[in-house]
Amino acid sequence: MIHLPANLISMGAVDFGILVDGAVVLAENVLHEASHRRPTRKREMLELITQSAVAVARPTFFAMAIIIAALI
């Protein structure tokens, strides 16, 4: 209908999905940790976010790498 090949449209959706997937995993981990630790100060929350990001960085990277490898 818009004279754009469907594979380009789906690749754009997959690219966007990869970014959103990583962000969702990070956000869920931050919320999970915040519900357990209950930070009271801004400094504590920033530390919690940093620790949560470090905790999910490796698994998220490998999940994205697997999706990219499957597409290639």
Summarize the model shown.
With about 70 residues, the chain is an all-alpha fold. It has helices at about 5-35, 40-70.
Q: Globular, elongated, flat, extended or rod-shaped: what is the shape?
A: elongated
Proportion of beta-strand residues: under 5%
List unreliable stretches of 5+ residues. none
Number of helices: 2
What letter string, H or E per element, gives the SSE order? HH
Number of DSSP strands? 0
Radius of gyration: 17 Å
Terminal-residue CA separation: 27 Å
Sheet bearing the most strands, described?
Answer: none
| Range of helix content | over 70%
Q: Decide which structural class fits the backbone.
A: mainly alpha
Mean pLDDT: 85
Main attributes of the structure:
single chain, 72 residues, mainly alpha, 2 helices
Task: Report on this structure.
With 72 residues, this protein is mainly alpha-helical. 86% of the residues lie in helices and 0% in strands. It contains 2 helices and no strands. The protein is elongated. The mean pLDDT is 85.
SSE topology sketch:
Blueprint: H1 6-37, H2 42-71
Helix pairs in contact: 1-2
